């Protein structure tokens, strides 16, 4: 680690703590990048501003406003590239700009908007982190209070700067028609110098959304207005995504009330004086940009280190002793292919253990036949249950026979690539903090980092869509042996998830390799989960919640666990209680990954109650009137109102 550096640089990391900043936007957005750059320098990194984008260096390269950045190939960008996104309404934008979508899918992304973050997985943006714009006083200092011009010297009633598309021009022309003196760019955008020359002369600053489709408040403009001590009228709604401190420092209203609210504020000098003082104080209450970027850099370094180790594992040799464990029950259609993929491993398994859970078809006969004709399987240990034990008990029996450095779990229905054991064992050998590693399949990528995986386990998914796949797992066997961990029969077929949580409770990390080491699971007709499966998964989540929310009182955790129950009370008040429990838990945790997952669960809760006609008119509006729920649900944007009966809002 780099000694004395606020953000410790990993030992052997191939890139220097020098950050190259490059913006493809115009000079009007330069202050946003400068806030990040100065904050990084305060963290001890050296920085430079580059005129042209490049990744062919030993530094970390950050690209701002990169919608026009061309890519030389279809491969991922190198690990030393970070794309910083400040564009709102990503789903609609990326539908119009597929090139920018490909860029975000192939780089590490710093995302400024929680609303956007809600859509990342659907958009295929899997390497991303929430990194908001807050406040860096050394980059954008606050105007001293004694430099605010008196009313008689302010000859502009209201000022707006930014792109003047039709929805904004409608408001600006209405303000002019009402008799106010309005300043805004016409045709050509103002330079920062032109803007800064006009700002002191304005009584009121106006902040408006670019489009109806986004709920994310335009914080960069708002920050400029507040640090220049402007009284601000901002287009905001209950579902607008904005820090609570800033919401309270401006006059907020919907678009159709902007003209009336601006006129009132222009005429109310005492209110303007109060807002001119409140704005800078609100900026100071935001998390310092330096602290935000310290956390973002640590997470980037950890993720990139894991990615590099994974890349090295693909080509590395491994001398690990790996046992393989597979549980079968009536798998005659798949077992031959599964055994063939074990035999074909480029790292010969130390021991192959197959536990047959009292199959009634030809599974056992096929296993014995393969043991006879394939010398690579002749030493296979076949354990046969005379009566059905269930997956967990069968797997525990097999675990008792495992030996070596690692244990690979095999699924009869999921074939593995020949290099699976070699790559995963090499990764585990190079990653002593990791207790379990999975891999992507031909079905698509999975979350790679521990925090993403743990948060993903909170989703009420079908049992075959978990953030780690049982048939892709390799476990650190010595750690399991030393701690006496095993497969808990009370968790049924999800006992493997219980074992993962035991490893996490012991301080181990979980990881997925972004390497296709397993095939896609065989196509099977999807059926609704059984009552036993629902109960078992609920028990898994009960064990998960204290790991995700370690400071949450047990009584609160028990209430939150109702989210995964089989039945909820029929009244809408119970839906509200579930939403409030999620919001309260996330308020204490302040983890954007976890909050993003639970916001998705809010949609599930509301959908169930709406489908059963349990939500009365005005229900959602009532939710958004409660500050705790408003701030938690705001990143859902307009979607939250789709559950209002008759679509009212």
From TrEMBL:
Keywords, in A-Z order: Transferase
Single annotated GO MF: transferase activity
Superkingdom of the organism of origin: Bacteria
SUPFAM superfamilies, per the entry: Nucleotide-diphospho-sugar transferases
Entry keyword Transferase: yes
Coiled-coil regions listed in the entry: none
Domain Glycosyltransferase 2-like: 323-440
InterPro entries xref list: Glyco_trans_2-like, Glycosyltransf_2, Nucleotide-diphossugar_trans
Listed name of the protein: Glycosyl transferase family 2
Species in which this protein is naturally found: Variovorax paradoxus (strain EPS)
